[in-house]
Amino acid sequence: MGRRLLASYLALTACVLAVLVxxxxxxxxxxxRQDLTAKVERDAVVLTTFAEDLLGGxxxxxxxxxxxxxxxxxxxxxxRVVVVDSxxxxxxxxxxxxxxxxSFASRPELARALATGDVVVGVRRSETLGADLLYVAxxxxxxxxVHGAVRVTYPMSAVQARVRRYWLILAAVSAVVxxxxxxxxxxxxxxxxxxxxxxxxxxxxxxxxxxxARAPEAQGPPEVRALAASFNETVGKLDELMxxxxxxxxxxxxxxxxxxxxxxxxxxxxxxxxxPDGRPDLEGSLAEVERLSRLVDGLxxxxxxxxxxxxPRPIDVGTIVAERLEAWSPLAEEQRVALSGDVTRGxxxxxxxxxxxxxxxxxxxxxxxxxxxxxxxxxxxxxxxRSAELHVVDEGPGLGEEQRARAxxxxxxxxxxxxxxxxxxxxxxxxxxxxxxxxTLSAASTGGLDARVRLPLAPDxxxxxxxxxxxxx
Length: 473
Hints:
- With 473 residues, this protein is of the alpha+beta class.
- It folds into three domains: 2-161, 2-Layer Sandwich (Beta-Lactamase), CATH 3.30.450.20; 210-309, Helix Hairpins (Orthogonal Bundle), CATH 1.10.287; 310-467, Heat Shock Protein 90, CATH 3.30.565.10.
- Helix content is 54%, strand content 18%.
- The strands form three sheets. It has a five-stranded antiparallel β-sheet, sandwiched between helices.
């Protein structure tokens, strides 16, 4: 952002300099040319007054005297002077003093001055000298007759050198201005971007779950300080809200579980005192207490999941699947359901430690509840592209397409008589999605349900320490 701000400052300054400097340079160049032309034209007119006496036949000046004048003029100014008669033959040439006459009738400026009697001014390129020449041709006339002409040619190199020098000065001034703007602009940009970088770091930390992060409020312009203050206030309120939520979960965990455990104990103590007619009601009450306990446990687990920040790390999928299958084997044997596992060895996925265990526990619990006696629950895991894909497949009655679409809704159950709290799959979906994975349900070829979990594969050869469980989710 700082670079973009600096670039905008420099671009704006460059535009202003271009608007000011370019017209100034062009104006200076034009004025220099006009000034030189006026001076050369004035000198040519003065020289014409000397040549008029010689060409008009007056005894006032001789050819030698005129030659001395034009030669001295060339030495002083560097301009070449040629005086021609009405036929275009040179009378005096400062570049060839004392030389023989030459014809200049083919020179356009002289031919025009002799033919029209007009003063001819212009610039042409001299291939002989390799430079641009300013020429002024002034006719020598008296009594309405043109007796000849005086041509003064002056090299433009001196003017061009001054113009180039002026452009270089303007360029140097522009460079100094741009450098000064760059220095000042950098300080201004840093005064904005550094506080914003602090706000960005605090926002990143807060987004990653660190609600104690705060942006610096004493840096930058008032707008940035106000932004930092608003951000800190928002994060502070969010931190307070999350702490209140965590306190509620902790309080609810204690305040709800204890009365439920006491209620169940009292109901169980009544079994010996209840008549056979009242035993169905007692068993129903115990079942409702058990269901309420599971519901409370599910709600608390879901609340902890929503308030916990994900920190995915490489985990060994095969080891976790083997541990959960071993843990669930006694209950499966009791219900006469077989458990089978098929996992690719050495496969590691990215997940928050402890979460995949919760996912498998919920899926296995649902599968055992749906599986008939003598059925089989198969758990498989293998790489699929850039993901580790797990399948938990049962041989139960399965779910319809509409039921599968709603299965992850909180408190949804397959039917009025369906068991469970309706939170297990919601917890699974929350745990998997927070680690960047995906969970879906589809009809299995066995007629039951196929729960598929996809998690990102871990990079190759992660450090061994990354497999440690810091405490679960």
